[in-house]
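Can't paste images in this forum, so I'm doing it all in text. The chain is below; anyone willing to post the predicted structure tokens underneath?
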Amino acid sequence: MSYIIVDVETDGPIPGDYSMLAIGAVIVKEGLKKTFYSNIKPISDKYQKETLKFLGLTRKETLKYKTPKKVMIEFVDWIKQNSKGKPIFISDNNGFDWMFLCWYLWHFIKENPFGHNSKNLSSIYKGLEKNMGASIKNIRNKLNHNALDDAKNNAEALLNIQKKYGLKF
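Text version of the structure:
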């Protein structure tokens, strides 16, 4: 199995109506050398201006990104080339990141190499701490909302959790 931390950036709260603008991913191994990053062209006319402003982007800029189908094909190819065995999706906010990525994979290329499952980094940490109020923010650097930087940051946190608790991969 290969554990892959994924982070996405979007221009709104739900896929289909709004768009995934970036995807970052990293294979969870010391050194975090196997990474994927791409910007993605919007799929709809809807977007939240305040979200783009928060991300430091303009709508005009996002319209020059790669098509979603091309990015999803590249992402799945990257997974196939870089993972061993079944890839396991992990995200800090898997309810959000999984919702967008799963929708994009099925909508644009009719497959999802992760299957129908995802893992939540924060939930892993809470379980090991035996505290539903524990915050992953205490063991990782602040996120900057660059999808690859945030994926790497979360992967570093998972590696630190593995060391601290003896978590088996």
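The first strand starts at residue 2 and ends at 10. The chain has six helices and five strands.
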